[in-house]
Design a protein that fits this description.
The chain has 323 residues and is mostly helical. The protein has one domain (19-320): ABC transporter involved in vitamin B12 uptake, BtuC. The chain contains 13 helices and four strands. The strands form two sheets. It has a two-stranded antiparallel ribbon with strand order 1-4. Helix 1 (2-33) packs antiparallel against helix 13 and helix 2 packs across helix 11 (253-264). It is globular. The chain starts with a helix and ends with a helix. The relative contact order is 0.19.
């Protein structure tokens, strides 16, 4: 028993070292290959425009995957929040009202997912896939076939600019929002009864049901919570680019899934976790940013990300086979 426990602990540490080592090697490589990689301006852009947005979406995906499900509609939650937020600002409404309405639109997406999965008993894959198609159609119908909405300077408000342009003690507001989201999800997932129940549902849903856990109710909270986090990402995205571009949220889907599964490699139980997901996000963001600086186009960036995910997971699976 002691030997097996030691081997599991050793494997967990080796997996963590492998991921952290890959991150360090990537940073060192891009620092040498692209002199501008470690400049203050690029690091700020990497953190605020790459890490923050993907991390907030990936936190929502972490909740869902921890429950044993999948959410293919995270991009729709991002887009619906962004669309409603920008539309209301363009119509002259106050920024706080636009923020609340945008988050409300994201919550509607999560509520629809929850109803399909817990009430109609549709599998998470099919339910969220259907919501993805519906959400894309709603965006096209609402924007005359998918036309972007740009804000002019006259439509800006001090509150709007404060979302993406302000800082507290030198820390940009988007980073503060990310830290708050990280803390909230960490406490919920790792330090509450709800988090333990979500883990039980993800591991053995049948056992969880017979143990007295209200599985449908808890799953509903998972999908609504994930959509809320994606709504926050949508507000931050629109505040940064000062526009809404239909279906732009879909760009986060595969990266969020990849970051979450990369994060499972540092867990002995191979379960999603906040710290692991954050490390996965950092890996993907560094690869994207670094390959862009060395001159690789978008398509080759996707190849690089795919290779990275494959290598990290392959090493992790290889280490866990030792148990």
């Amino acid at each position: 028993m002691a030997t097996n426990a030691f081997r599991r602990l050793d494997t967990g540490r080796l997996s963590t070292l492998a991921v952290v080592g890959a991150f360090a090697l990537l940073v060192a490589f891009f620092a040498l290959a692209a002199p501008s990689f470690l400049t203050a301006g690029n690091l700020y852009n990497l953190l605020v425009n790459n890490v923050v947005l993907l991390a907030v979406v990936a936190l929502g995906m972490t909740l869902v995957i921890a429950s044993g499900g999948i959410d293919l509609s995270v991009g729709v939650s991002v887009d619906m929040a962004s669309m409603v937020f920008i539309m209301l600002l363009a119509a002259g409404y106050a920024a706080p009202l636009a923020v609340l309405a945008g988050l409300g639109a994201a919550l509607l997406v999560g509520s629809l997912n929850a109803a399909l999965i817990t009430r109609l008993r549709i599998s998470p894959f099919l339910a969220t896939l259907g919501v993805l198609f519906i959400g894309q159609s709603v965006q096209r119908l609402s924007t005359g076939g998918g036309q972007p909405i740009y804000l002019v300077r006259a439509e800006f408000a001090p509150t709007f600019d404060a979302i993406a342009r302000s800082s507290l003690l030198g820390v940009p507001t988007p980073v503060i929002v990310l830290v708050l989201c990280l803390a909230a999800v960490y406490l919920v997932l790792h330090r509450t009864v709800f988090g333990r129940q979500v883990a039980a549902i993800g591991a053995k849903p049948g056992v969880a049901w017979y143990s007295g856990i209200r599985v449908p109710f808890q799953l509903a909270k998972v999908y609504v919570g994930a959509a809320f986090l994606c709504g926050i990402a949508g507000i931050l995205l629109s505040s940064t680019v000062k526009s809404y571009v239909p279906m732009s949220g879909n760009a986060f889907l595969l990266d969020a899934i990849g970051a979450t599964f990369i994060g499972t490699t540092i867990s002995r139980e191979r379960r999603p976790g906040v710290l692991g997901t954050l490390l996965g996000v950092a890996l993907l963001a560094v690869v994207k940013n670094g390959l862009l600086l060395v001159g690789w186009n978008f398509y080759w960036q996707q190849v690089g990300i795919g290779v990275l995910v494959f290598l990290v997971l392959a090493v992790s699976f290889g280490l866990h086979r030792r148990d």
